[in-house]
């Protein structure tokens, strides 16, 4: 049997008929603990799922608690996080920071995942840690191929104990390395301008989804980033805090779903998200 068939079918579950994908990430607890919006992950996922995102991203052990969201016809696809790092944590301070693969492709298959996601981190204090990350990704890519599982790699520039580095040259480097390690899809940072992001898109031959990153100050700022990235080559977004830390996560999800798939513009999306 050809594993490429399974990969094609699973990828089809992830992307909407428009060719775009809106994924909501809920795996932050693995990195940051029970932060605001994730204290009750069952309720939080349920609220977001009602807004009809294309996919939800969690770790495999969480799936059992939220499985009813995936068992209904027309429910979201499932993206399984299979690794972890503490490089963003500030308390307790990481010294010097770690990367570990903690779940297998088989673990993702067991919970009926449609894709897996893993980090590529560029900028460890010790280059041997970057090498270990690359070795892990090579093994993940080979296993994902065996199981027909789409692999999303999240290539990030890092500074230990701070947010991801958004310098264009570093992102382009990380994007190209991730492309050649064996990713099927990339999850990348927006670089701050349409021109620089277009150069990031041109650094790879793979589809890109844009990370939401930290919560933005305004809805307009967040939605403008979505529109700019989609118009310059992105094929979707992966948002977390900007969704489940919103005043109304369900309405925020609905607004972003319609914005990503071209049903509304920025003004209409803001109105939807703020509707009472």
Give the key terms.
276 residues; alpha/beta; TIM Barrel; eight-stranded parallel barrel; two-stranded antiparallel sheet; 10 strands
Helices and strands, with pairings:
Blueprint: H1 3-14, E1 21-25, H2 29-32, H3 41-49, E2 55-58, H4 60-66, E3 77-81, E4 83-85, E5 99-101, H5 105-110, E6 115-122, H6 127-147, E7 151-157, H7 168-181, E8 185-188, H8 194-201, E9 208-211, H9 219-231, E10 236-239, H10 241-244, H11 249-260, H12 266-274
Parallel strand pairs: 1-2, 1-10, 2-3, 3-6, 6-7, 7-8, 8-9, 9-10
Antiparallel strand pairs: 4-5
Helix pairs in contact: 3-11, 7-8, 9-12, 11-12
Description:
- With 276 residues, this protein is an alpha/beta fold.
- The chain has one domain: TIM Barrel (Alpha-Beta Barrel), CATH 3.20.20.70.
- The protein is built from 12 helices and 10 strands.
- It has helices spanning 3-14, 29-32, 41-49, 60-66, 105-110, 127-147, 168-181, 194-201, 219-231, 241-244, 249-260, 266-274; strands spanning 21-25, 55-58, 77-81, 83-85, 99-101, 115-122, 151-157, 185-188, 208-211, 236-239.
- The protein has an 8-stranded parallel barrel, surrounded by 7 helices. A two-stranded antiparallel sheet has the order 4-5.
- The longest helix is centred in the middle third of the chain and has 21 residues, at 127-147.
- The radius of gyration is 17 Å and the shape is globular.
- The mean pLDDT is 93.
Overview in brief:
By secondary structure, the chain is α/β, with parallel strands linked by helices. It contains twelve helices and ten strands. It has one domain: Alpha-Beta Barrel (TIM Barrel), CATH 3.20.20.70.
